[in-house]
Design goal:
Elements (H helix, E strand, L loop, with lengths): L2 H17 L4 E6 H7 L10 E8 L2 E4 L5 H13 L7 E2 L3 H6 L10 E5 L2 E5 L2 H15 L4 H8 L4 H12 L5 H15 L1
Parallel strand pairs: 1-6, 2-4
Antiparallel strand pairs: 1-2, 2-3, 5-6
Helix pairs in contact: 1-3, 5-6, 5-7, 5-8, 7-8
Length: 184
């Protein structure tokens, strides 16, 4: 999906939810959120939901509420999108801990019955560094991270956050190598 396709699909979903008397607030990360905020231009296959907003509190997005899942599938089917065009695959990050201040930095986008809170640039740097270490320097995550043009200070902070999610020596070695490649 490109930016227009994703925005159109979210507008349809928001209207569909509103027509059903439903309202959801979701926190999004990854390529879809970056695309919506205009930080990348590459297409994405999905929109990753890391948490739900419940009042002023982030809660687990896994599993997504059944009425929301049904609406996502209905809209996706009508627009010929994959069944999981919106998914909560990264919800484990919420369980392990989001970067400190994550909720305060969210950027809201409103689509009638849907409010989408996109992760900030700094938080995306954290997530993209973590994914880059996991999937390597040839991954889309590494390219996205380079496009975000993180400062050394942002990379240092993101590296500290990443180490809280994988304490293995192998991860630490791969993280050091990723940071070295980004500093070149």
């Amino acid at each position: 999906m490109d930016s227009n396709t994703l925005n159109e699909a979210l507008e349809v979903l928001g209207s569909y939810l509103s027509d059903k008397g439903l309202k959801y607030e979701l926190a999004a990360i990854g390529g879809g959120a970056l695309l919506l905020l205009g930080r990348i231009i590459r297409p994405t296959k999905d929109l990753d939901i890391v948490a739900l907003m419940n009042g002023n509190e982030l809660i687990s997005a896994h599993p997504l509420p059944a009425p929301l899942l049904a609406a996502i599938r209905e809209v996706g089917s009508a627009l010929k999108l994959p069944e999981d065009w919106i998914n909560s695959a990264p919800a484990d990050l919420w369980k392990m801990g989001l970067p400190e201040g994550f909720q305060d930095r969210l950027d809201p986008i409103y689509y009638s019955g849907l409010t989408l809170y996109c992760a900030s640039r700094f938080d995306q740097i954290c997530f993209k560094l973590y994914a880059s270490v996991d999937q390597g320097p040839d991954s889309k995550h590494f390219e996205d991270l380079k496009r975000l043009q993180p400062t050394q200070e942002e990379l240092d902070k993101a590296g500290i956050w990443c180490k809280t999610h994988d304490v293995s020596q192998e991860f630490a070695i791969l993280l050091t190598e990723a940071l070295r490649q980004l500093g070149e």
